[in-house]
Specification:
By secondary structure, the chain is mostly helical. It has a domain at 70-144. The chain contains five helices and no strands. The protein is elongated and about 85 Å long.
Length: 149
């Protein structure tokens, strides 16, 4: 055995004999609860039985942004669709301009969310999404002059 091979063998033995510490840094336990170390809260606290562990932000002071939830998300998409149809002023420019192609894309996005979330929404969220899609589709048809309402 050459000197070089002997040195490589010694290095392997030395690296194998070094100790190391394994630290579990996963945020969830094997039961699906959030670990205390991950949040600073006691382990096992979840928002409700069977939920995904999503926690809403605490309420904000008046005059600040609304809470982040599904209803606020779909309302923002619907508002974008209305802005693209010229129904509400663009928040950046302040002007009302029509861009029916972009409006159609927002409506299609909401329709995709409707399909993908079927059976997973609260009744009020389901009703809101259905009503928004109906209203946006009717406005789109009136704007595109496909159907005279």
């Amino acid at each position: 055995m050459s000197q070089e091979e002997k040195e490589k063998g010694d290095e392997r033995e030395e690296s194998q004999s070094r100790s190391f510490k394994v630290e579990d840094r996963r945020k969830l336990t094997s039961e699906g609860d959030i670990r205390e170390a991950a949040t600073g809260e006691p382990a096992g606290t979840r928002t409700s039985a069977g939920d995904s562990g999503f926690r809403e932000s605490p309420p904000r002071a008046s005059g600040s942004r609304p809470p982040v939830d599904f209803s606020a998300f779909i309302m923002s998409l619907a508002t974008s669709a209305m802005a693209f149809m010229g129904d509400v002023p663009d928040p950046v420019t302040g002007r009302q301009e029509e861009n029916l192609e972009e409006a159609q894309q927002m409506i299609d996005l909401l329709a995709m969310l409707q399909v993908k979330t079927k059976g997973n929404l609260e009744p009020d969220e389901h009703r809101l999404l259905d009503d928004l899609l109906y209203e946006l589709r009717m406005r789109y048809l009136a704007k595109s002059k496909v159907v005279k309402l």
